[in-house]
Hints:
Elements (H helix, E strand, L loop, with lengths): L1 H16 L15 H16 L1 H11 L8 H15 L5 H10 L6 H14 L11 H11 L3 H7 L5 E5 L4 H10 L4 E3 L6 E4 L9 H4 L3 E3 L2 H10 L6 E4 L6 H9 L4 E5 L3 H14 L5 E3 L12 E7 L14 H4 L2 H19 L2 E11 L5 H13 L3 E4 L15 E2 L8 E7 L4
Parallel strand pairs: 5-6, 5-8, 6-7, 8-9
Antiparallel strand pairs: 1-3, 1-4, 2-3, 9-12, 10-12, 11-12
The chain binds S-adenosylmethionine.
S-adenosylmethionine binds next to helix 12.
Amino acid sequence: MKARIVALEILNEGISNFFISRNAWKKTSNLTKQDRAFVRRLVYGTLRYYFEIDKIIDTFLKDTKKTPKDLKNILRMGTYELIEMKIPPYAVVNEYTSITRPKFKGLVNAVLRKISEISDKTHFESGLPPWLYDKLKKDLGDIFPLFLEKNEFHEIYLRAVNKSRDEIILDLTKQNIESYPTHFSPWGIKCTEGTDLDSFEQFENGDFTFQDESSQLVGIVVDPKSGEKILDAFGGVGTKTTHLVQINPKAVVTYNDINRSKISIAMDNFKRMRIFPSKMINTDIINSTLNEKFDKILVDAPCTALGTIGKHPDLLLRLIEKDITEKAQMQLKMLENLWEHLSDDGEIIYSVCTVTKEETDGVISKFIQNHGEAICVDPFEGKMNFDFEKLGVQLLKWIDGFYISKIVKSNKR
Ligand SMILES: C[S@@+](CC[C@H](N)C(=O)[O-])C[C@H]1O[C@@H](n2cnc3c(N)ncnc32)[C@H](O)[C@@H]1O
C-alpha cells in the first residue's frame, strides 16, 4: 500500500507539472529496493501509456472532466497494473479502493472492477497520442516498430570516467548490480537495474557518470585533438563536455549554456569527475555573438527528445504538434549563427536525441542548401557500419533514437 501511495504522489505532481523532477524520486527513499523498482515501473508505465489508459477509463466514467485529478490518477495506475503488469484483479481493486478518499471509494471499486473484466483481452499499442503516432510512422517507415520496441523498457547506461569499465563492472557486481559492457561505446556500461546508482560511492567519486550509449558516440565523432579549440555550444549539465576533455585533456574545450541552473549542475559534475573545460561561458547562441572562432563546434541542440520517451515518458504529456516545427526552425537558426564562428576547414557536429525528419535530415538539408561551402561527411568515417545517407546517421536501428551529423566548412569549393 505504501508503495502505491508514494507512486500516486509522484504521479500527481508529474501530471500537474507535465514533468517528473529528479527530486520527486527521493520520495521512494524509505521503501525497500523491490518497492522502489515497483514504483518506478508503475509511474513510468502509467505515463508511457497515458493516452491509451485514459481512453479505457473514459469509457467507464460518466463525466471524465468532473473527475478529480487525484482520483483519475488512482484509476490510471490501477488500469496500468491490470492491463500491463497483470497483477491479480482482487489485489488491484482492493489496494486502490483502500487508498481512495471515502467519498469516491465506490466509484474506484466499480470502475476498476469493470476494467479488470476486460483486462485479459486488452493490451496497449504504442502509447503515443494519435497525431504523433501518424507522424512517426510516416517519418520512420520500416523502423517505426523498432522505435516503439526501444522505448518500451528503461535501461540505465553509465560512462566509465576515472576508472576502467571493467573495474566499474566488478564494483557493481560486488554490489549485486548486473551490468555489461556496451557494444559500440568503449566507455559504456549497461545496467538492468540500480535506480539508486547516484548514491553509490563510485558515482560520488566520479568513477562513472550517467550517459546513454548513443550519446557517448558523440565523443568519438568530435574526436578532440591536442590544441584544437572546441566549443560545446549547448553544454547543459556538462556530460559531453567532460567526455571531450576525458578523451583528450589537451584539447581546448569551451563550455557554453544559456541556462544558469544547468551551469550550476555542470560545475558540480565537473568537480565530481575532476574534469574541467578550459573555459566556461554563458551565451544565448540565438541572440548574441561570440568573439572567437573554433576548430570544432558541438551543436547538441535542444530538441523534442522523442528518442528518450522510454526514459522520460512525461515528455509525451508536454509535446504538441507545433513544437516539432518550432524546434527545427530554432535548430537551423542555431547552426546558422554558429557557422560564423567556425574556422575554415572546421567541423560542426550536430546531434539530437530525436527521430523526427524535420529536426534531423530536414535541418541539415536546409542548412546545406544555404551554404555552398558546407559538406556533410560520414560522422564515423566508415569505422562503424551505421547507414550514412548523405546527411547524417540515425542510430535507432543499432542503439536508440539519436541522430548525429558532421558538417565540414570547406572554402575550396
Ligand atoms: C540537449 S541539451 C544539451 C545537453 C548537453 N550537451 C549534455 O550532454 O549534457 C540542450 C541545452 O541547450 C541549452 N540551450 C537552449 N537554448 C539555448 C541558447 N539559445 N543558447 C545556448 N544554450 C541554449 C539548454 O539550456 C540545454 O542545456
